């Protein structure tokens, strides 16, 4: 959830996807808010029945408002996906491959620290090989 929310903040701050959205469309529906409140009550009730410690409540209830914040901006996510589909297919596949490779290097660096060096060197070379 937090990764999705961080990605959403990056998309909103570094793209023009939110400029064409009116204020009326940005308001979340009451159904979405009520469903997340009901989900939170249901999870809290389940944890209460199980007689869990308070740390379980924090761990289980914290993702609910984060996912609500992500799904509240569903229009931005939808516009982002539509803008991704405007890329030529070969360019889209290449970018998705590089993105996946970067995530795999990051995960692999948890087990083999030297792979983090390769990922950081590639990240340092990135401004020289792009048009930014």
From TrEMBL:
Tree of life domain: Eukaryota
InterPro entries linked to this entry: GPI_EtnP_transferase_1 (IPR007070), GPI_EtnP_transferase_1_C (IPR017852)
Domain GPI ethanolamine phosphate transferase 1 C-terminal: 1-129
One record GO biological process: GPI anchor biosynthetic process
Keywords: Endoplasmic reticulum, GPI-anchor biosynthesis, Membrane, Transferase, Transmembrane, Transmembrane helix
Pathway, per record: Glycolipid biosynthesis; glycosylphosphatidylinositol-anchor biosynthesis
Compartments in which it is found: Endoplasmic reticulum membrane
EC number: 2.-.-.-
Gene Ontology molecular function: mannose-ethanolamine phosphotransferase activity
Annotated membrane topology: Multi-pass membrane protein
Presence of keyword Membrane: yes
GO cellular component: endoplasmic reticulum membrane
Residue intervals passing through the bilayer: 29-48, 54-71, 92-112
EC primary class: transferase
Main function: Ethanolamine phosphate transferase involved in glycosylphosphatidylinositol-anchor biosynthesis. Transfers ethanolamine phosphate to the first alpha-1,4-linked mannose of the glycosylphosphatidylinositol precursor of GPI-anchor.
Family: Belongs to the PIGG/PIGN/PIGO family. PIGN subfamily.
PANTHER family: GPI ETHANOLAMINE PHOSPHATE TRANSFERASE 1, PHOSPHATIDYLINOSITOL GLYCAN, CLASS N
Name assigned to this protein: GPI ethanolamine phosphate transferase 1
């Amino acid at each position: 959830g937090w990764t999705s929310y961080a990605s959403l903040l990056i998309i909103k701050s570094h793209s023009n996807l939110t400029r064409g959205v009116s204020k009326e469309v940005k308001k979340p529906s009451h159904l979405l808010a009520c469903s997340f409140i009901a989900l939170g009550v249901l999870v809290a009730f389940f944890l209460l029945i199980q007689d869990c410690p308070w740390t379980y409540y924090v761990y289980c209830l914290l993702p609910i408002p984060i996912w609500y914040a992500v799904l509240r901006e569903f229009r931005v996510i939808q516009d982002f996906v539509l803008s991704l589909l405007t890329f030529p297919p070969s360019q889209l596949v290449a970018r998705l491959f590089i993105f996946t490779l970067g995530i795999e290097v990051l995960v692999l660096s948890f087990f083999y620290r030297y792979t983090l060096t390769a990922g950081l060197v590639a990240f340092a070379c990135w401004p020289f090989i792009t048009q930014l």
